[in-house]
């Protein structure tokens, strides 16, 4: 147990207005409280949720975003008994630890998820661990605000990892990759030999493909308009890819490729018309997982009679139904066994190029940008 008593100065990407840009500024990072950990960030992934928050999802400003941090423990609070300075860690989403969902080891459905991940403050007293000359800079985004050289995290969302692993690659396991892989492994319960259709071949969709391959799924079809991503999907183990721009009947194509339909399906696009196709691809007793943020007024475009006669369901999925303390080690075990090459999804950027990384993410030039500090 070791706890620094003083704040330290850090470089951070501060967001001051809706729509950006991220501004690299100096901030003060407070000492960790009893149940907190202060981490020197080595690398941090950029997730679509960071861009959603930048572009208008209601978070207070100024704020430091970032929620796929990986780094080295610098100091720990007095109540933290199982981490010490020097430990390598991955930071994930935060949760309250006390609600029925957390008690059932399903922290992705924490009753206070928004307060612990989007409020920009500590839920207990409304304070932020970040400041500038005494003025508050909102932090605690996903319990970390890791777009900076140091971050304060809670012990609950800090996962210790093997120091021999490439720490600069590991941050995205805390959210995007965990969400995709967890969606098929945890939420849909995909089993060896079962079939799956994935709509969207971005970071989450391709992570779902990796998860499907890790559990030895059968036919896995990826529907994606970007040619380079279709080719990558094939390299990563997709049995078939479909270009929805050139295929006149995507549903018929999937049924033909999968021998009548797939066991489960996963939509990562949030586009109602795509969801309408996805829900029809499934064989009896299948489940469609939904991940993406839809338009605010979107309605589920499903034919109820069609769903009835097949007994299929639809489930919205948060964070891949994962408990980071157990699922991140599981993914790392697959990686060490050469069964989960998530590193193929990553493009590195210097931290100073955070705005360029954001543009690459939005344009599709990079599947999963990771900022190196």
From TrEMBL:
Its cofactor is Zn(2+). Residues 203-332 form the Alcohol dehydrogenase-like C-terminal domain. Transmembrane segments: none annotated. It holds the Pfam family ADH_zinc_N. Coiled coil: none annotated. One of its GO terms (cellular component) is cytosol. InterPro entries: ADH-like_C, ADH-like_N, ADH_Zn_CS, GroES-like_sf, NAD(P)-bd_dom_sf. Keywords: Metal-binding, NAD, Oxidoreductase, Zinc. GO terms for molecular function: S-(hydroxymethyl)glutathione dehydrogenase [NAD(P)+] activity; zinc ion binding. Residues 34-160 form the Alcohol dehydrogenase-like N-terminal domain. Gene3D superfamilies: Medium-chain alcohol dehydrogenases, catalytic domain, NAD(P)-binding Rossmann-like Domain. One of its GO terms (biological process) is formaldehyde catabolic process. Belongs to the zinc-containing alcohol dehydrogenase family. This is Aryl-alcohol dehydrogenase. It comes from Solimonas aquatica.
